[in-house]
Structures are given as structure tokens and as C-alpha cells.
Amino acid sequence: MLLRSVEVFLRTHDMAATKFGRLAAHDPRFVLDLRMGRIPRPETEARTRAWMRNFEASLEQVKSSRITSAMPAPMQVKGAFHAA
Fold first, then answer.
1. Cα separations (Å) of 27 from 22, 34, 54, 61?
2. pLDDT digits (tens, 9 = 90+) for 12-37
3. H or E stretch including 83?
4. Which of 34, 49, 59, 82 is the most buried (most CB within 10 A)?
């Protein structure tokens, strides 16, 4: 069920329902309508689920790039590599 996945996503990412609706479905009332019983078309549901997957993948990419950029660059000292 899409609503359950969306609610978990909102709690996990501490995101407002209206912001999610604007970003994922271009409709700020999207989540509110789901809560009231709206049943989205299969294409809308697939796009929404894909948006959530892409959002989480981009967060993972940002986290991993922060980790690697925080690591000190190795420097060469007398033919051997040492961490700075």
C-alpha cells in the first residue's frame, strides 16, 4: 500500500506531507488526499515509489561522498605513503 510506504518515508526523513507531495507528485495535497482514501493511478504510484527510491539513493551518495572527502589525503614521505 502506497500510503504506508509514504508515511514511513515521511517519518524517516522528517519531511512534511505537503513538501513530499510537491516534490514527488507536484501536488501539495497528495499525501493528505491519500490519507482521505484517494487511490492513485498505477502510473502515479510507480512514479512516487521511484521518486522515493531516487531520493534515498541520492542521500546515500551524499553521505558516502562526505565520508571520502573527510578522509585525509595520503602524502608521500621518503618513498612511503602516510596518512596526513
1. 5, 11, 18, 27
2. 999 999 999 999 999 999 999 999 99
3. strand 80-83
4. 34
Q: Is the pTM higher than 0.85?
A: no
User: Cα separations (Å) of 21 from 7, 14, 25, 26, 48?
Assistant: 12, 14, 5, 6, 9
Per DSSP, the residues of 11-74 read: HHHT--HHHHIIIIIS-TTHHHHHHTT----HHHHHHHHHHHHHHHHHHHHHHHHHHHHHSPPE
Written as one letter, the residue type at 15 is M
| Residues 6 or more apart whose Cβ sits within 8 Å of residue 47 | 24, 25
C-alpha cell at 74: 595520503
Q: What number of residues does the chain have?
A: 84
Per-residue pLDDT band at 69 (split at 50, 70, 90):
low
